[in-house]
């Protein structure tokens, strides 16, 4: 039986095994591939299909019984050769109703299954190797930490007793090197845990502003000794207490601020925190870390969050670092339900922004703390808010006549500063405007944020567009 009998392709030339059997299960045709793979010659014709698929087909007097659904789909069966050895096959059997015939098409998948087992073995070996590597890295870094901390402890004991200025400088240099070494060790340990999927967050309730004070005090000395200015501001909408992993939030901020300090030689570093969304007892906090440092070309920005990656090798040589910090930050931010991004311009500066979701107590999410008001007053005083604007309650309530008047006044000063290219002054007025719109609708708050970022980047076109957009929203 050949091509003319079935009206299909020449089955003898097919690479897959093809068997044709009737309603009694008697094989009436087998192509060359079927005969070869099953070890039969012409004697396969006339045999019952149950001899080939003994686990699936059984013969009766008039017809066969089959544990097979003729649905046209591929099924995995076991085929038996003439010498009674078996092998796995992918099989599809279709019925030709008009001729009361069944066409079976099968492919030997023994090699495929063998390859799959080999791949699985390789995967298990790779997993085991990864586990061994992670354990090795963890053990080595722990062993490194012991002598580093031993040196650090002895140096700190010597510092109060040393009076010679030259020796003091050497001891402080050793102390700083030990601190840097500990940071590198911590990064490697965190990376190993994240890579192995064994990293877990440890959320707890803590005072958010106290945490920020700690972060600020950790960096302000190094930043100011380089001659840089350092500012930190918090929106009044940010709760006083939040529920999250305080240690990891500090770690992210420390890394971004340290990078900003490392790559900035002139200008300033600023940190800003806003609340951008709230859903029941969770809030989205948005962080901005801006510097006026060396900046990064747009084509190189994708490299920043990759493991062991620097924009170029000269950066590693000049500034140090393992290239793990930002990758760890990215993974930590994503574990907290947020994302991280960067905007930068070569020789102009860089702004890292990231968001996280944190839990809040229902009361804490709606109240404004005394500490928060104190922070806002300090910021207002620095940026020169007039006394009557600083003290009035109505002036901060968005939409009141006093608020509208103060906004118009500061917006006019803002645009005048931009026209005169006095970007530092413009930032001061922008900070005042941001405080005057703390209770504004979300669309206004987002426009304010875009306008602030445009001013930080000294982008005249975006400032003009943001100004017009803000005016339109305020008129609605």
Give a structural overview.
By secondary structure, this protein is α+β, with helices and mostly antiparallel strands. The protein has three domains: 3-108, Beta-Lactamase (2-Layer Sandwich); 115-195, Signal transduction histidine kinase, dimerisation/phosphotransfer (DHp) domain (Helix Hairpins, Orthogonal Bundle), CATH 1.10.287; 204-475, Histidine kinase-like ATPase, C-terminal domain (Heat Shock Protein 90, 2-Layer Sandwich). The protein contains 15 helices and 14 strands. The protein has helices spanning 3-6, 32-38, 49-52, 110-158, 165-195, 208-225, 246-262, 313-319, 325-335, 370-382, 387-391, 401-419, 423-436, 442-456, 460-475; strands spanning 17-22, 27-30, 57-59, 64-66, 75-80, 86-96, 101-108, 204-207, 229-234, 241-244, 268-279, 282-291, 340-345, 349-359. The strands form four sheets. A five-stranded antiparallel β-sheet has the order 2-1-7-6-5. A five-stranded mixed β-sheet has the order 9-11-12-14-13, with helices on both faces. A two-stranded antiparallel ribbon has the order 3-4. Helix 4 (110-158) packs antiparallel against helix 5 (165-195), helix 6 (208-225) runs parallel beside helix 7 (246-262) and helix 12 (401-419) runs antiparallel to helix 13 (423-436). The chain is elongated, with a radius of gyration of 36 Å. Mean pLDDT is 79; it is low at 1-9, 316-320 and 364-391.
């Amino acid at each position: 039986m050949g091509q003319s009998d079935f009206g299909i392709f020449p089955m003898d030339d097919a690479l897959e095994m093809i068997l044709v059997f009737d309603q009694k299960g008697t094989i009436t045709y087998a192509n060359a591939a079927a005969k070869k793979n099953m070890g039969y010659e012409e004697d396969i014709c006339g045999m019952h299909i149950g001899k080939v698929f003994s686990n699936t087909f059984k013969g009766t007097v008039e017809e066969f019984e089959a544990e097979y659904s003729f649905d046209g789909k591929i099924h995995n069966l076991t085929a038996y050769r003439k010498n009674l050895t078996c092998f796995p096959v992918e099989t599809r059997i279709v019925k030709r109703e008009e001729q009361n015939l069944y066409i079976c098409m099968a492919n030997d998948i023994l090699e495929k299954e063998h390859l799959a087992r080999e791949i699985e073995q390789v995967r298990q070996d790779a997993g085991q190797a990864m586990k061994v590597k992670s354990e090795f890295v963890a053990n080595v870094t722990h062993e490194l930490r012991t002598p580093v901390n031993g040196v650090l402890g002895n140096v700190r004991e010597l510092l109060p007793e040393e009076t010679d200025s030259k020796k003091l400088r050497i001891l402080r240099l050793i102390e700083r090197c030990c601190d840097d070494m500990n940071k590198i060790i911590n990064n490697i340990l965190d990376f190993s845990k994240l890579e192995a999927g064994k990293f877990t967050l440890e959320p707890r309730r803590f005072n958010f502003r106290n945490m920020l004070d700690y972060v600020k005090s950790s960096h302000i000395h190094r930043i100011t000794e380089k001659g840089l200015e350092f500012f930190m501001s918090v929106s009044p909408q940010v709760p006083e207490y939040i529920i999250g992993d305080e240690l990891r939030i500090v770690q992210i901020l420390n890394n971004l601020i340290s990078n900003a300090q490392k790559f900035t030689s002139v200008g300033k570093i600023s940190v800003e925190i806003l609340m951008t969304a709230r859903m029941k007892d969770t809030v989205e906090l948005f962080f901005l870390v801006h510097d006026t440092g060396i900046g990064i070309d747009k084509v190189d920005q994708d490299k920043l969050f990759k493991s062991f990656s620097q924009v170029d090798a000269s950066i590693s040589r000049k500034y140090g670092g393992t290239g793990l910090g930002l990758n760890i930050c990215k993974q930590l931010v994503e574990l907290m339900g947020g994302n991280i991004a960067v905007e930068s311009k070569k020789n102009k500066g860089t702004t890292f922004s990231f968001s996280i979701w944190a839990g809040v107590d229902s009361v804490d999410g709606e109240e404004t703390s005394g500490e928060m008001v104190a922070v806002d007053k300090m910021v207002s005083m620095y940026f020169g808010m007039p006394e009557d604007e600083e003290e009035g309650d109505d002036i901060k309530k968005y939409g009141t006549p006093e608020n509208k008047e103060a906004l118009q006044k500061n917006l006019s000063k803002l645009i005048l500063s931009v026209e005169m290219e006095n970007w530092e002054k413009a930032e001061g007025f922008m900070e005042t405007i941001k405080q005057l719109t703390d209770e504004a609708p979300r669309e206004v708050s987002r426009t304010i944020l875009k306008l602030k970022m445009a001013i930080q980047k000294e982008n005249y076109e975006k400032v003009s567009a943001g100004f017009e957009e803000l005016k339109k929203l305020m008129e609605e």
